[in-house]
């Protein structure tokens, strides 16, 4: 009986040890963000409690708000241009079906056009959960892109046309110009998500 008891204790200890090893090998949900690229990784600093990607073939619908579609004026942005902003999305209107842009601060110099080399600081908030998913301010490095080159989501290639150096612009990007039905970041950005960006034009070349 003593030997049987020792065998039972050893088996339980081995099972607990294996479980601990399995948990320690789970990949971290946080990976460095690299901006609004076509195939974005998990955004930097995203909360570990964010929802996982839905099963294949399913579509996550955003909660329906009552009333009309939101306009750019309905989105409240606070904070000084050039510094990390605060973005507030209301519950009283629906996400717009079309790309919306609004300059919150005017810039100077030449307007950005296809082929322009841009350096942009940005913050991204997703509409459905009103959570910050990525920003460049915490990394201390502006995101570089060739406008119109197809390296970023279409909402950026289209929405940044005309921006001038020093400007701050609000972009509200519908799913078809963002990450569409695929989402991004391993479930951090849901399928068919509306994206709200505030961008500061650090350089327009």
UniProtKB/TrEMBL annotation:
Its EC number is 5.2.1.8. Residues 66-86 have a biased composition (Basic and acidic residues). PANTHER family: 39 KDA FK506-BINDING NUCLEAR PROTEIN (PTHR43811:SF19), FKBP-TYPE PEPTIDYL-PROLYL CIS-TRANS ISOMERASE FKPA (PTHR43811). GO terms for molecular function: isomerase activity. Gene3D superfamilies: 3.10.50.40. Coiled coil: none annotated. Residues 31-59 have a biased composition (Low complexity). Residues 1-22 form the signal peptide. This is Peptidyl-prolyl cis-trans isomerase. InterPro entries: PPIase_dom_sf (IPR046357), PPIase_FKBP_dom (IPR001179). It comes from Amycolatopsis minnesotensis. The lineage of its organism: Bacteria, Bacillati, Actinomycetota, Actinomycetes, Pseudonocardiales. Belongs to the FKBP-type PPIase family. It catalyses: [protein]-peptidylproline (omega=180) = [protein]-peptidylproline (omega=0).
């Amino acid at each position: 009986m003593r030997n049987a008891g020792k065998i039972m204790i050893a088996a339980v200890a081995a099972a607990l040890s294996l479980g601990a090893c399995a948990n320690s090998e789970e990949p971290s949900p946080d990976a460095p963000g690299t901006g609004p690229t076509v195939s974005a990784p998990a955004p930097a600093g995203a909360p570990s409690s964010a929802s996982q990607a839905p099963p294949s073939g399913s579509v996550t619908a955003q909660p329906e708000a009552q009333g009309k579609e939101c306009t750019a004026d309905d989105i409240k942005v606070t904070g000084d241009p050039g510094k990390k902003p605060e973005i507030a999305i209301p519950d009283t209107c629906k996400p717009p079906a079309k790309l919306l842009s609004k300059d919150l601060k005017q810039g100077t110099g030449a307007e950005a056009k296809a082929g322009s080399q841009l350096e942009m600081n940005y913050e991204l908030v997703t509409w459905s959960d009103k959570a910050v998913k990525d920003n460049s301010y915490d990394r201390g490095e502006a995101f570089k892109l060739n406008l119109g080159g197809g390296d970023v989501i279409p909402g950026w290639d289209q929405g940044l046309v005309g921006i001038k150096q020093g400007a701050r612009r609000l972009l509200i990007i519908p799913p078809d110009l963002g990450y569409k039905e695929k989402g991004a970041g391993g479930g951090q950005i849901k399928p068919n998500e509306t994206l709200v960006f505030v961008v500061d034009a650090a350089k327009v070349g």
